[in-house]
Recover the amino acids of this structure.
């Protein structure tokens, strides 16, 4: 996906009987793409190996 190796899995049909597939980045496990009959959701320009301070993830 966009030059990154990925694993694609066919998901079981959902409650409405819709089949879908999900592609996961092979290095990070990040889901990069979800495809079903009605739409495609895809992440692009994924950056890895960046430092994010722990304070970024704390809330009030």
């Amino acid at each position: 996906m966009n030059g990154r190796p990925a694993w694609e899995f066919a998901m079981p049909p959902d409650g409405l009987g819709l089949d879908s597939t999900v592609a996961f980045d092979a290095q990070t496990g990040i889901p990069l793409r979800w495809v079903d009959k009605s739409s495609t959701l895809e992440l692009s320009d994924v950056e890895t190996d960046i430092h994010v301070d722990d304070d970024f993830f704390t809330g009030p």
Summary: Residues 1-43 form one domain. The chain has one domain: 1-43.
